[in-house]
Amino acid sequence: MAATPPLYDTYLRAPLRFERGEGVWLISEDGTRYLDFAAGVAVNSLGHAHPHLVEALKAQAEKLWHVSNLYDVPGQESLARRLTAVTFADRVFFTNSGAEALECAIKTARRYHFAKGHPERFHVITFEGAFHGRTIATIAAGGQQKYIEGFGPKAPGFYQVPFGDIAAVKSAINDETAAILIEPIQGEGGVRLAPKEFLQELRALCDEFGLLLILDEVQCGVGRTGKLFAHEWAGIRPDIMAVAKGIGGGFPLGACLATEAAAAGMVAGTHGSTYGGNPLAMAVGNAVLDVVLAEGFLDNVREVALLFRQGLASLKDRFPDIIEELRGDGLMLGIKAKVPSPDLLKAIRAEKLLVVPAGENVLRLLPPLIVTAAEAREGLARLERAAEAVRAGGGTAAA
Q1: Which terminus of the chain, N or C, has fewer Cβ atoms within 10 Å?
Q2: How far apart are CA 133 and CA 147, in angstroms?
Q3: Is a pLDDT exceeding 90 seen at residue 118?
């Protein structure tokens, strides 16, 4: 029996070891092929070993890996110009992860009010069920006790209200409020979609009370809903936005985007990152945009997402004892199970299909954005066989 590896025991890992990937497929060490509708938790936006991303990384790796932010990094300038050209933003700060992008977003909002002579305005309103990262500040922003417990007092300055409750948001605003932070679609919280009208009301409240609207599009951004960013469906413009995951297509990359006004307080010395915006990450980030912004790409995401959603709706109709509710948008979808979700997950994995657990007894379906209609149908067929197995087992997956 192999010795236990000398790693922190913080993950409940599935007993799977993958050797390589091809598009929407992962191949384990024993050669078994798995249909990957987890995508590294919405990270592998263009699937595995995408040739354009591979070539970009290889070409950059032969030239320069790291110089730090003591010097100009041309790739940062290129990627920032491209991001600001297609979004609300005027300024970009590059990070290595989503949590770092959220840290930057929170600091940007607080610094904005400090620079305007209101240092007391540092409180951020967030929402129950949110997940914004694993740092001390972002677990406080998320407010979920299971992530906060054991790490000392909760970092001050965050106040949670019920998701979707505009009256609660209004009641929480006071003279110390700096910003409102929300995920347009909660991921870890159970794939809960914020209604368009709710996002519009939050924008109006921020305008009325001089607050900044911060969006966490770490999981739902970069094409996952069929638009470049999920908030576009609501027709609103945030002041600050954190992105990561899909923007790097598998390479660690995040970014904090902000308007000129919101970023005005972030002057030299107020924030930094040794690795953030390194040449390797910038090469891959630019390559991801080459693909995602290409004509017809997001149209295809929407078409396949519609087919997939319709197929899931049919499964729900045929398995009302297994599937309680469908959630989400685009290719960020959730199945709220009537049976224990670990049992359904076990059955799905037995069909060599990979999905991601979430809160509220939900399983997330996050296929790469390059998934074809045929591959979506194959995923649906495997989900159907899994549901049949759970039903035959009396609500639990067969051993």
Answers
A1: N
A2: 10
A3: yes
Helix (H, G, I), strand (E, B) or coil at 161: strand
What topology does CATH give the domain 52-292? Answer: Aspartate Aminotransferase; domain 2 (3.40.640)
Residue 397: per-residue pLDDT: 66
Q: Match 């417990």 to its residue by tokens.
A: 149
For the chain, give the number of residues. 399
| Cα dihedral across residues 164, 170, 176, 177: positive or negative | positive
Mean pLDDT of the chain: 96
Rounded to whole angstroms, the Cα distance separating 228 from 84 reads 12
| Exposure string for 215-242, b = 16+ CB within 10 A, e = fewer | bbbbbbbbbbbbbbbbbbbbebebbbbb
Q: What is the mean pLDDT of residues 222-229?
A: 98
What Cα–Cα distance (Å) separates residue 109 from each residue in 66, 93, 179, 232, 370?
29, 14, 7, 21, 35
pLDDT at 171: 98
Q: How many CB atoms lie within 10 A of CB 34?
A: 20
Task: State how far the Cα of 119 lies from the Cα of 113, in Å rounded to an integer.
Answer: 6
Q: Where are the domains of the chain?
A: 18-42+296-392, 52-292
> How would you classify the pairing of strands 25-28 and 18-22?
antiparallel
Rounded to the nearest 5 degrees, what angle is found at the Cα of 257, between the Cα atoms of 168 and 217? 55
The CA distance from 399 to 396, in Å, is 9
Cβ atoms of 52 and 221 closer than 8 Å: no
For domain 18-42+296-392, which architecture applies? Alpha-Beta Complex (3.90)
Where do we find the tokens 């109709």? 317
